[in-house]
Design a protein that fits this description.
Blueprint (H helix, E strand, L loop, with lengths): L1 H11 L6 E5 L4 E6 L1 E4 L6 E4 L2 H7 L1 H4 L7 E4 L3 E4 L12 E4 L3 E2 L12 H25 L7
Antiparallel strand pairs: 1-2, 2-8, 3-7, 4-5, 5-6
Helix pairs in contact: 1-4
Length: 145
């Protein structure tokens, strides 16, 4: 049962990375604390994502990049490809959400069941989306917030 909640933390994956608090004595996840960072996307202006170009050029295989973007950023001005850039100054908003006790949402379901884990993962993602929508509605200007 405890192993399945570790699998849940893997399912949450690279989407807006929630921080997971573990109890070392029980070797299980007690809480998921959603942490939102809004504004980092404003440090780079992407004109074109270039997903097809990433597949054709081999960037997906060689560089492990799903995109080969055309973007505007410092110091290059307009650049093509997954290369470094100096971030344009931007206002970042960080919010730590209310902890989510996953055991409250199991509802008697088998924690080893993949459908249960995906439902719990969706719960955390929905909470992060609500936090992001609320914060984004208050932001008026790129860079300045």
């Amino acid at each position: 049962m405890f192993k399945s909640l570790r699998v849940l933390s893997r399912l949450l994956g690279p989407t807006p990375d929630p921080e997971v608090i573990c109890d070392p004595d029980l070797d299980m996840i007690d809480l998921v604390v959603p942490v939102l960072n809004l504004g980092g996307h404003e440090t780079l202006y992407v004109v074109w994502r270039g997903e097809a170009l990433a597949r054709i050029s081999g960037a997906k295989r060689i560089l492990r990049s799903d995109s080969f973007p055309l973007f505007f950023a410092l110091p290059w001005g307009v650049a093509l490809g997954p290369i470094f850039h100096l971030p344009i100054p931007a206002k970042l908003d960080v919010e730590v959400g209310e902890p989510i006790d996953l055991w409250d949402y199991l509802e008697g379901d088998d924690p080893e069941d993949r459908a249960t884990l995906e439902r719990l993962s969706g719960l955390v993602q929905d909470r992060l989306q609500q936090m992001m929508d609320r914060r984004a509605a208050r932001r008026r200007w790129p860079i300045l917030g």
